[in-house]
Amino acid sequence: MAQTLLSLSGVHTHIGPYHILQGVDLVVPEGGVTVLLGRNGAGKTTTLRTIMGLWTASQGEIRFQDRAITKLDTPEISRRGIAFVPEDMGIFTDLSVAENMSLAAANGPIDAKRLGWIKELFPPIGTFWNSSAGTLSGGQKQMLSVARAIIEPRRLILIDEPTKGLAPAIIKAMTDALRELKATDTTIFLVEQNFAMASNVGDTVAVMDDGRIIHSGSMRELVDDAALQEKLMGLSLEAHQ
Amino acid sequence: MSDTAIKPRIEKVPFKDQFFQKLPVLLVPFLAVAGLAAIGNPASWLTLTVAGLAMGMMIFIMASGLTVVFGLMDVINFGHGAFVAVGAFVGFTVLAWLAGWTASPSVMLNLAAVLIAILAAMLVTGLLGYAFERVIVMPVYGEHLKQILVTMGGLIVAQQMIYVVWGPDELHISRPEAFQGSLVIGEAAIEKYRLVAVVIGLALFIGMRHILKKTKVGLLVRAGVENGEMVEALGYRIRRLFLIVFMTGSALAGLGGVMWGLYQETITAHMGSEIMVLVFIVVIIGGLGSVEGCFIGALLVGLLANYTAFLAPKVALISTIALMVVILMWRPQGLYPVVKAK
Prior knowledge:
In chain A, a hairpin with a 2-residue loop joins strand 9 and strand 10 (212-218). Chain A is built from 11 helices and 10 strands. In chain A, strands 6-7-8-3-9-10 form a 6-stranded mixed beta sheet, with helices on both faces. In chain A, strands 2-1-4-5 form a 4-stranded antiparallel beta sheet. The longest helix of chain A has 15 residues, at 168-182. Chain A starts with a strand and ends with a helix. By secondary structure, chain A is α/β, with parallel strands linked by helices. Chain A has a domain at 1-81 and 155-163 and 186-241: P-loop containing nucleotide triphosphate hydrolases (Rossmann fold, 3-Layer(aba) Sandwich), CATH 3.40.50. In chain B, helix 2 packs across helix 10, helix 3 (80-97) packs across helix 10 (271-286) and helix 10 (271-286) packs across helix 11 (291-311). By secondary structure, chain B is mainly alpha-helical. Chain B is globular and about 60 Å long. Chain B is built from 12 helices and 4 strands, in the order ααααααβββαααβααα. Chain B has helices at residues 15-39, 42-73, 80-97, 99-103, 107-137, 144-166, 192-214, 216-233, 238-264, 271-286, 291-311, 313-330; strands at 171-172, 182-185, 188-191, 266-267. In chain B, a hairpin with a 2-residue loop joins strand 2 and strand 3. The two termini of chain B are 33 Å apart. Chain A binds chain B through residues 52, 54, 73-75, 78-79, 83-84, 86, 88, 90, 92-95, 99, 102-104, 106-107, 120-124, 127-128, 131, 134-135, 139-140, 148, 169-170, 172-173, 176-177, 180, and chain B through 1-6, 8, 10-11, 13, 216, 219-220, 222-223, 225-227, 229-238, 338-339, 341.
């Protein structure tokens, strides 16, 4: 059994008058890919933003590497080794690709070897190195967003719907890249609605609804159990393909 | 991912689009040429153009801090004029102390006196900016209406403090000997001080551009203007950056105050709030948060104000507002709109 890297216990989050997370209990094991599934509005993005400290948990505890991070601010959480790829990609469009990457290397100059690996993983990063990030296509921006998150070694990467709105070829490229990333020492916590993609890369899975985790277990188990998929998400992988 | 068929392409931006993007830069020479055609006499035109550029540069100095503060921090600071006035009064005090130097025929002593006055004004207004940000602005981040109210309140408090320290009367500053008088080029008379203002404004613009484009702090400011949340998620403390930018913006307003005071040769506690009308027009014309836009906007306002004052003094009263209206009809978000991801 892999060690726990990140855990959420009874986490509640309020945004204005809305009570979004209503007692989230979740464990992300060390290594591999944990996927968070759920319909629109279930609270997946809020879960990631609460982990990142962008929204503050009103109740409950978040622990990372066995230390509480619930009350830490976002920069401190980032420095503890958690990277975040938001749903809107968070690209600085006024800056060049190189400048985006340089800012992401918060702890010093970019490591040339690691950058070489990233350019192999995402060829457009090299091709458009000096171009304005605003001129990139949606898929290229998503690659830049993930590349930025891995420019320095991280313990955990939170990725929010990396395939949203992308063409099938780009989704495949992104899936391959996540697989390769998974082979390194990095743990990935992925929010995804594309079940085919999620089942392709995921090792463990949690399903969310109405601000709570309603199922967690291995991805294999969920993929193999069409009735469970139907029950949890109202769909089955076969029907989805 | 090597087996995946992704072939990156570089598509050249069409010339038409490139030209359209650069178009605002051409407005300044266009306005200058139009001014020459309207004025007719090259000597008068040269005098007015240098006066317009000098005025524009001084407005830019005062406005640059405000636009960056708005862009990065999303703060509408109506109290910015307080730093202009305080800067002018601190500069006045220092120049009064150094009266021996300013009256001396030595250019070096004159320059040293002005430099010390500027540094003192920037130091005081920078520190005042620190207090202003911590006490007045910090509690109202993200709340525009409250920002307007409390920063206006801060401006009034600052003006009253000026009354307490320097008294209610307007004060007269004499320019140092070396900055008095004019240079005569052909038939055109160009005030020496205006040339100094142009040089300082230009140096500041080049320096700011260099910092914003070439340094990590500049990158952070540009990134923060667009998406402050993401900057934090990358591990940077944006609140600290806010404070640095606010203090720098306040110090620049202080510098602008000294220069504007020396230009007008009269300072009052209300000078900051009076000049703020032009400063806001420039910031809006340029595109909220854009330093380049602010620079071009300031030069346009300076040139137009001087040309119209010569050609049709009554029109001069509305010329800058008319310029803003025309530019906003053409580009509703200003000359160089800043993309915000928030």
